[in-house]
Records
---
Amino acid sequence: MKKSHSLKQIITESILFLLQMIFLPIVFLLLYGISIYITDGYAQGKLAAVSSIAAILCIYALLRKVHWLKSTPKKLGWLFSFLFFAIFVIYTIIPVASSDVARKEKDFANVNTQYWNLKTGSRIAYYKLSASENVPKKETPILFLHGGPGAYVRQIDINFFTEFTKEGYDVYLYDQSGAGRSGLLSKEQYSHLRNIKDFDAITDVINAKKYIVIGQSYGGSLLAHLAADKKISKRIFKAIYAEPGVTLQSDIPDDQRIFSKSKPVTVTDVSLPVRIMISLLINPKGNFTSQNEVVNYLADHPDLIQSLFSEAYPKNDSTRIPKVDIGIINFSVNTIIKSELTFYATKKDLAENYQKYNVPSILLIGESSYIERNAPLDLLAINPNITRVQYMKGVGHLLWNGLDHNNQRVKKVIDDFLNDHISDIPNYPSRQDINTFYKRKL
């Protein structure tokens, strides 16, 4: 009987110990997260580290006082959990890269980097591709909006848009605030609204009557809100949405989002250190990490940029993806703007504005995009100005990917739209086809 009681006590204490080993680290980590949030990541997380460890020691002293920690399993559970937590905290407050000066990109070999000092306070790096001299010049220039947010103009974009200069177009490409060569602002200055205001200021500086605007990925999301703006929409001659990202809150729950069955090369996000992930998830606008540290970490790990770039290609192209020019990706900008993007305008507001402001538009969708299909198709569903949809086979999220004849194919589609020609590619999916398109997972 005594043996049975002893065995039962050992099992009970073992279960208690295991439960503590699961439960206590979770509580400690939650406390650490709350401390980071409350202290705004002050001193690169050191204040949150000290305050959370101090709080845990105070709780320990209190529990000892009320004799809750009198049993050995409880004491051991607490001790091991605390050691695990302390090691984790120390690990996360060690910088992963220099915070002194953010790494700068080299200029393109074939295009000069110029700067606009805008009335918004932004200093924007831009690249002008001038119309060829031996062809009649078009009076409507092309403006390109890159993705991200927080990404940059790449050589692959320069190569693609140079082809339009041969038809008489001036083309302007620019790095958005906090991205590429445009330099960093303080974190609290980044916003989707700022990008809208910067665009408006840029059109004033160029001072053309109207613009052809091409937005890729987040650039497409930005374009969707530009085309719904009373003042700005008047200056957009035609809008081209190339694989636009999320623009509005979808009716489809997150766990039911629909993706293409034609997978891109990878479907995982870039693997970042725990320290950077904590900063982006808990303290994106705060001081847990500086932008310099995040930017420099990525600059030190070009393989991560290449991995992210590879996601924009179909799986069939996995062995022949070109090396991307490694630019500065600012994940601080990415997190800050993405968190506010879908709340910037409601579906009702956008739908009503698209009815009021007529901007002839086309939507381009890649066969193996890594973004959810709901993003472009939610936009199609409420925007009557999108009169053409072109489903581009053999390409991914980055339509002009430099392989085979893909650049020429995409350019031909855009040319047909700009010149009001009927495209060789069927107009698909239409609004009536959206549900079928989802079901087929195209």
---
Amino acid sequence: MASLGCLVFLGALYAAQKPWREYPGLEYSNYPIPPDFREQTEWAFARLMYPPVSAWRGGFNFEGDWREGGTNWTMDYPRSDRHLSAALRRLTRIHVRSVEQPLNLDDGDVYDWPWLYGVEVGHWNLTDDQARTMREYLLRGGFFMCDDFHGTDEWEVFVASMEKIFPDRPIVEIPNGDAIFHTVYDLDDRYQVPGAQYMDTGKTFEKDGRVPHWRAIYDDYGRIMVAMCFNMDLGDSWEHADNPQYPQRFSALGIRIGVDYLVYAFTH
């Protein structure tokens, strides 16, 4: 019965994929588009679009319309998304689309996408309506993975929006024995996955985020709905997987975590 449900779900997802478009990113413009980007598939990398908490960060002017890109949600985009998608094509039997799908919670179609990724959520600022939509999405069976936020200040910003989504559910550390670390790869021995700054500084941490945390919010049945990679930058590990200056061991773990989280989302 579970297998039949999975097949029905994947068939619905195949039919639901909407036309693709690319947005201006913080780091990339005119990134090469794969020739098969229009292919209808079982799964596509869904990236959360969100309003930032501040109009300024790190010298970038974010006073424009966040819905048109060029803000925090586009960090590492689209290179990171496409590298993980390519890895999933090689490492799993999931029929994966070669390009990502940015999703705005205000558009109402997030329910068509079972796995959602948010980057730099230490800078997000969800509206009340967006938080309600995210809550409903997660309680209906959606899965949200968030990443690339570091230190005390960014954690507080993250929690401010997360408490709008789930004011009644605790954030906890994921135990090593949880199925999310054992769906495809056994990942008991994990370590901090750094961002691109490691290539210049040799530091695996940013700000005061010296200790990596794999945290989660569970539903009433023990399923992880929100998986948080805190004090880490898996997005950079995917983005720089083809960069010889970025250590292979970090990309190897980052990709394995991504694979495990996706397969978990499909099976739980």
---
Amino acid sequence: MNMMTSAAAMTAASIPLAREFGKKDGNGGGATLDQRLASALEEVKGFATEFKTKSEAGEKISTETKEKADKALVDLAGIRAEVTELAQKFDARRPNDEEHGYKSIGQQVGESPELKSFADNGASGTVTLSVKAVTSATGSGAALIAPDRQAGIVGMPQRKLRIRDLLTPGRTTSNSIEYARQITRTNSAAPVAEGALKPESNYAWEVANAPVRTIAHWVPASRQAMDDIPQLESLIDGDLRYGLDDAEDLQLLLGDGQGQNVYGLYPQATPYSAPITIAGATRIDQLRLAILQVELADYDPDGIVLHPAAWTGIELTKDAAGGYIFANPQGIAGPTLWGRPVVPTKGIGTANFLVGAFKLAAQIFDRMETEVRISDQDRDNFIRNMLTIRAEKRLAMAVKRAAAMVRGTLL
């Protein structure tokens, strides 16, 4: 009787479980576990051969021989239980193996259906156990060693988008927004004597038009990548939507109205002209004068748009004693200047500012909210197993009261 194993299992001396198999213990009089297993198998096979020979010859098997055979089978079962217990202890130190479907040599031997069947059938014949050796050598067991894959995908940073939140929202089902805008208002109302001519006031309007513009972009992606990386589709979807919103933010603020550009807030705002003269004026003074300019146009400003660097410079302004004038390093309140919220955005540029009553000044009209579509019907996508992912949105912005905004260059 012999027990055959693959060479890989017999030479796995570097595996902790293999070392455990080779350790001596008190149960076998100094024999190692693998030696005890081989001896027990040999003994059981001897009894099986003896039983077969006597049965064929018609001889009676003694009670003593039967008792010895039963004891040998019990010992074999005990050794097999030890192997299984050892395998479980070893695998308890490797929690990720079960997750990835990997089993140690001991677990493979202990749970082998061939070994169980061999023992249950009286250890008759020869059993062959095939086990896989686990090694970290380059190219020798790559499929068995799982990388520590971190969940999620690390994306690039996204700046905060602010301009849309300043404006009044709206919707449209047309391709353009047409509205009447007052351009003249001469108020001649005055007390009048009985029978005298009443004064004439002058009001004039013009028809203005804000066309709906489309903002769009697309990216290619392989079908395999989309199938194999669950987070990829949501990442692409999120990045495409952010890309549209980023372009929209710049269009709403700086679009020149030419071609397919939106006509933005900054180009249409009233140029800054200090209503009063302040000696030694600073940027802080200048922004207060811009607020005054809007107020003199009979609007109440509800925001200030600045570059983050410009706002930081204002926050760090100190008095003669070195104390901060506007900032509180320990505070958590949002940026505010002269009682108006400050909206920091890099789009406006480091040297520019925009002050206005934005809710009254302009309104956004969404024609089509962001839409993302995936298709393989683009060029040779079908035969290349590629996908085209497209995102687009359509909107118009109507600046109805340009005098409610003041733009300028910082001192």
---
Amino acid sequence: MNTSNFNWALIPSFLAALEHGSLMGAARATGVSQPTLGRHIAELEDQLKLVLFERTGRGLQPTAQALELAEAAHAMQDGAARFSRMASGSGQTVQGRVRLSASQPVACFLLPPILARMRQALPDVVVDLLVSNSVSNLLMREADMALRMVRPEQSSLVAKHIGQVALRACASQSYLQRRGTPQQPGDLLAHDLITGDRNTEIEDGFVALGFPASGLRHGLRTDDLNAQWAAVQAGLGVGFMSEHLIGSDPTVTALLPMIELPVLPIWLTVHRELRTSALMRAVFDFLADEVPQALSGPAKP
């Protein structure tokens, strides 16, 4: 193989297909279309003169050759990511672009007023906001900085615990007027619930309390957290949202304080190299100061 003509840009597509096991999963994770990913894989196989994946009805099955090449491919991508991070960290002026990753509710309800204040305080900083409920891979430069509900384990990342989000059962006043207000956890078995679809954390919580998941009634099931909140506001049923969000709408009432729902920590995470950049330090410090203040009061409508 002539390495001078090798297309190194094909490596991320190869790794995404390897990790997710299908073009659909890889496309969802990378934002690259399925046809483009398919062309990348075909081109890489042509350049290497190897078959990397067996196409099956259940997705892509990596060949033995693909698995052998995976370690080297990861090393190549890690090197490229480190090169990019070092270049980004070399600037010492508070201007430029910062790619920030956050979940849907944080990005749509908590962050906007904070970013508006940051725009005034740091007018030369532009934020590219990656909205996703999945954990973005900072090491691969999917984002420069992230607000996460879990602490990263990689030693190359700097993480600061800046707050926590308390969850509560809640429902709109219009729903409670129609269906009554639950007084005990067991009362929820007679109510329509708004829960996740593939995410079964709420059902698992009911099982832990001794209530069978088969006995639950659903008003709506969706993994889209913004859709869950909109459904609560519309009166579709009882949902499980953050106290911060519940406090933003006077027509929504918090319920059943005796139910101990998880308290989610918020970690602000950044690359260790980028933490030395004046741009990244300014944004990091601003968010570390503003997010806890915002969480201490209700979201503004």
